[in-house]
Amino acid sequence: MHHVTLILLTLITAVWPLGPPRPDILRGWQPPPGPYAAGHRGVDLAAPPGTPVLAPAAGTVTFAGPVGGRGVLVVTLSGTGAPPLRTTYGPVDPLVPAGTPVRPGDVLARVAPGGHCPESCLHWGLLRGDTYLNPLTLMRTGPSRLLPVRGVPD
Questions:
Q1: Does pLDDT of 22 surpass 70?
Q2: pTM for the whole structure
Q3: Gyration radius of the chain over CA positions
Q4: Is 26 helix (H, G, I), strand (E, B) or coil?
Q5: How far is residue 26 CA from its own chain's centroid?
């Protein structure tokens, strides 16, 4: 007899960081082949300066300030494991300080002029520890699913 263990995969409730409707993606995620190699460690979302930047999920602002002369904001997402997921945003003018708890849709910042896009954009990143991930994975929709896991002792 074969035993199959089921695990529940849950998805956090996420909203687009620029609100609905889904913004245009100017440049997608391109993971680098190594920690110091070229790549694109996030996605660039079309947004004019002054556009409100929203918390995609519940969490806590863990950084809000300048990095390399540009405003950056980081949110550590609640209930996302260890180490927890962190979302990053830039260039922005932060509107809330580090330590602020946030809910999905709370306004965190405004898109600032500048950045690396030929037109104005918000660079949105996602990390777990030191590993960069595709932030678009937060935007999956649909119900939680039970998936079989094989090879796990009873």
A1: yes
A2: 0.80
A3: 17
A4: strand
A5: 16
Are 117 and 44 contacting, i.e. CB atoms less than 8 angstroms apart? yes
Residues 6+ apart with CB under 8 A from 19: 52, 54, 105
pLDDT band at 142 (very low <50, low <70, confident <90, very high): very low
Q: Quickly list DSSP for 56-115.
A: SSSEEEEEEEEETTEEEEEEEETTS-SSPEEEEEESEEE-S-TT-EE-TT-EEEEEPS-S
Q: What is the DSSP letter of 50?
A: T
What is the tens place of the pLDDT at every residue in 103-124? 999 999 999 998 787 788 999 9
CA distance 114 to 100: 26
pLDDT value of position 14: 82
Q: How many residues in the chain?
A: 154
Residue 113: what pLDDT? 92
List of domains in the chain = 14-138 (2.70.70.10)
For 135, phi and psi rounded to 5 degrees? -65, -20
In whole angstroms, give the CA distance from residue 41 to residue 31: 6
Q: What is the DSSP letter of 136?
A: G
